[in-house]
Structures are given as C-alpha cells and as structure tokens.
Please model this.
Amino acid sequence: MEERTGIAASPGVAIAEAFILDSQQFPVSHRKLHPSDVPAEKKRFLRAVKDAIAEVLLIQKTAAKQAAGEHLKVFDAHVSMLKDATLQSEILNEIEARCCTAEFAVSVAIKQQVRTFMANDFLKRLVHDLYDIQHTLLRQLQGSNSEGLSQLTENAIIVAQDLTPTQTVTLDKDKVVAFATDAGGRTSHTAIVARALGIPAVVGLGTITADIVPGDMLIVDGNTGTVIINPDEDVLDTYHAKVRNIKEHEARLARLCRLPAETRDGKRIRLYANIESPGEAAIAVERGAEGIGLYRTEFLFFEKGSPPTEEEHYEAYRQVVRTLGGRPVAIRTFDMGGDKLVPGEASTERNPFLGCRSIRLCFQHLDLFRTQIRAILRASTEGPISILFPMICNLREVRQAKSVVHEVMADLDNEGIRFSRNVELGIMVEVPGAATIIDLLAREVDFISIGTNDLVQYTLAVDRGNECVSNLFQPAHPAILRIIRDVIATGNRNRIRVAMCGEMSGDVVYAVLLLGLGLHEFSVSPAVLPKIKEIIRSVTSEHAQEVARTALSFDEPERTLEFLTDWTHHVLPEIT
Ligand code: PEP
Ligand code: MG
Model:
C-alpha cells in the first residue's frame, strides 16, 4: 500500500481499478512540402477546423445530456478559439511561408499563442484550452478519433498526466468514478468541470502515472487530496464505509433543497446564490437558492472580449430574472480591473488592485456604465432586481452612482420605456475605508453586501491570487472578524439589509459565526448552498451567538479557525 498527496480538486471518494489514459501525443511531421502541394495542405487544414468545430459541438451536446451547467461553456470557448480568424490566418501563413504540414503549422502557431497567454494573468488559465483545441485539430488532421476511453467496460479511476476539459466531459460517467492526474490545479478548467459533473478528483500528484500500473486498485479521496495505491483490507473497509456515509449525506442534502433556511428557533435567513452567467441561475434555483445575491456581470464582457450592447445586457438580465421566477436578483455593475482584465488587454497600471478598477473604471467610461444601468432598469419589469455597486470607498462614489441611475431613469421616462421604480440600490463593502464609515454609507443605500475576498485582501495587505502569501489570507484574523462584526451591527442598527457574498459566507466553517454576528443574508456558490442550509438549520440563534462570542475572544486566527472547525465537525461530522 502506498499513499500520495495532491490537490483536492473535486470532492467525493471513489474506489476502483486504475485505467491509465495515454496522453496521445501526436507525432508532428517536419516534412517539407512541394510548393505545389501548399494549396491542398491549406484546404486540408480548413477542413480539419470545420470537422473539429463539429466534433466540439457534438461533445457539448452529449455532455449537456449528462449534466447541464456552466462547464459546457468550455466548449463555447473552444469553438471561438477554433473560429478565431487571427489564429487561422497565422496557421495558413505558416503553411505558406515554410511549406510545412498543417500539423507542424498548428503546433507552431499554438505554441506562439501559449506564450502570449502565459504573459497575461487573465489569459493564463485558458492555456489548457489552447492545448485542448490543438489536440482536437491534430486528431482531425491525423484521422484518429479514438480517445482510449471507449475501451472501458468496468468502473475505473482514470489516471493521466493531465486531462483536457474535452476528455473530462467525454468520460462515461457510468464507468469513470474518479480521476487522478500528475498536473493541474484547483482552479483549472478540468477541476471546475470535474466539480460540475460531481466526479471526485485529485490533481497535481506529480508522478502518479509513473507510480502505478494498469489494474492497480486505487482510492481517490477528493476531499483530502489523497490517493491510496493498492490499499490493504482495513483501509479498504474504512473507505467503503466513507463512501456509504457520503451517499447517505448527499441524499439528505438533496431533500433539504425544498426546506426553508431557518435556525432551530425559527429565524429565517435569506440564502442566495452567486452566479457569473445566466446559465447558472437555473442550477442555483435547483439547489434551493431563494434569490441571487451577486450576479458578477463582468463575465458578460470577458466572454465577448468587448463591451456588451444594451440588448446583450438586457437579454442576460431578463433570462436570470425570469429563471428566478419572482425571487430577488442583485445585479452587480461591472467589476473589472485588478485581476479581472479584458482578454488580450494587459494592465498598464503599476498596481492594478489599487488602480482604476471596478466602479472607478465605470465612472471613467460613463457610456458603458449608463448602458448597463439602462439594461438593468429595463429588465426590472420582469421581477425584483437590485443594483449592487462594487469597490465603494467613499460617499461621493455612492452619490455619483445613484445619480447615474436617476439620470438613466429620467431618460427612460422621456423615451416612454417601462421600468420598476422599486429597484433597490446597494454597495459592496470590500475596502476597510468603506467599512469604517459604514454608518455614513448606510444612510445612502438600501442594502450592503460584504465582499470578503477583497476585504481580506485590502485589510491584511495580501494579494488574493498570490499563492506565496496565501497562508496570510486569513478570514479568521481578529481584524477581519471585528470589521465584519461592526459592519453587520451598524447595518442592522440602521435597518438596512446586510448580506455577505464573499467566499467566507460559503465556507461551512464560518457559517455559524456569521449567523451569531447577526448576518441575515448569505450569498454563496450554488454548489455549497445545501451545506450552508444544513448548518443554519442545525443551530439556534442563541447558540450561534455563543459560538461567535467565543470565536472573537481568541487573539490568533489559527485558534479561532481551530475552534470553528472543531465546532462544525462536532455538530455535523459529515460536512467537514
Ligand atoms: C469579494 O470581493 O468578496 C467579491 C464577492 O467580489 P469578487 O470576488 O468578484 O471580487
Ligand atoms: Mg470583490
């Protein structure tokens, strides 16, 4: 028996034999063509592009039958990349200039794009997709359609150097019970897809493909990031019991979807979802969301690579509001800049997180801002909408944002376009300065939403995306807990709605503490909704307040975290 530790990429536990997936590296010929063969080679490439697009669309359709959701978006990205006129003409030019094979030209051009993508923090995460389309194109050019997975007849754990998103989605879910890879990280597309499909996964294992042989028995624990090779009987029994517990727990969580989010003493909590695109709204509702607490609209911009038109905004918002069927939707205005850059545009600022990002950028591009507000207001006739302004630092910004809304309302009135006048206006509390003057800001707005991802970053001076300082990114730091306590208390005193939509609100370990601090609205990723609901339903308000008091009495974040983890584990052992 041997144990390996990697990155826990997708939760769950699976036990089965290993199936080693060949990386299918295609030999790329450097053969020189006769110039007279160049036109035919170009045609061969264009035919391969067409077939590759058809193949991706077919895979997307098949995958949609297995599970609807955001992971299908990966295929839209692949189609766009395959259709990209610049990439195509680079490949055609390469064939022409070097008299080389289409395979060679594809490899050269993609390598070049990989270099460009690697130099841009936003595009870096799409490199995997570039390799995926290269793989699809080469397969088309070389006439092979076998992905190796068709050989599966029994349940198996796929072991691979790395899996492309296409491979991940084409896995036969009835046969593939988990996967383990040498490469990959928690935020890679493959990990995201695995989570969406509910396949346990451990990635970043280094040399797992070299350490096992086909047919080895494996345990993949996607909760802890552990892979056990050829476990002995005792370990196997323990893990079989774990699998049974997880199945029972999942069945219980599924039943919770229809129950209200209320504490044992009957206090109702608004349990909402964070979404990044209209497609996620249905998943949120399915998982029991009573509303959308944060719709990150900047993804509309990123997906398109340019500003959406008013109609594109409107269609997206209308779709979300209709899907929510009367439940409230908080639409956050563009929150771009920092690490959220428009594809292809590197930041020129020395310190983008402290630069012209978010609401500041909107004020510099008032036309974009007004277009978005117009579309949101127009969609407000479909259901209850509120507008959330990000990165607010001072009163002037709130007043300016509000006056833009009022001007746009006046325009719509003049044009005879209908909208609801009951649209609530709120701000994100993500900057310590805003938290400190929350009493002043609270007078200006209908609600506030605490964005802990940025609040922790700015309060503790820790870049939220830098793994070298990730140990210092501590939501349990006394400074953070005191800020949150005071913001919630001031909001409640001023009788405005106080929500939290940062990742902290979706972390099971903090749920009871936040309840105890008086938070009435949690907005979390749809995947964790049932777990947060289970915690809410398992305590009384009094008990939660007691937990919060104890949590705030520690002077070190580690001790607070240990206390909260122990508490959560004690009350709900299956959840942690
Ligand atoms: C936050 O900062 O907590 C937040 C929800 O916003 P984002 O993660 O989109 O910056
Ligand atoms: Mg933020």
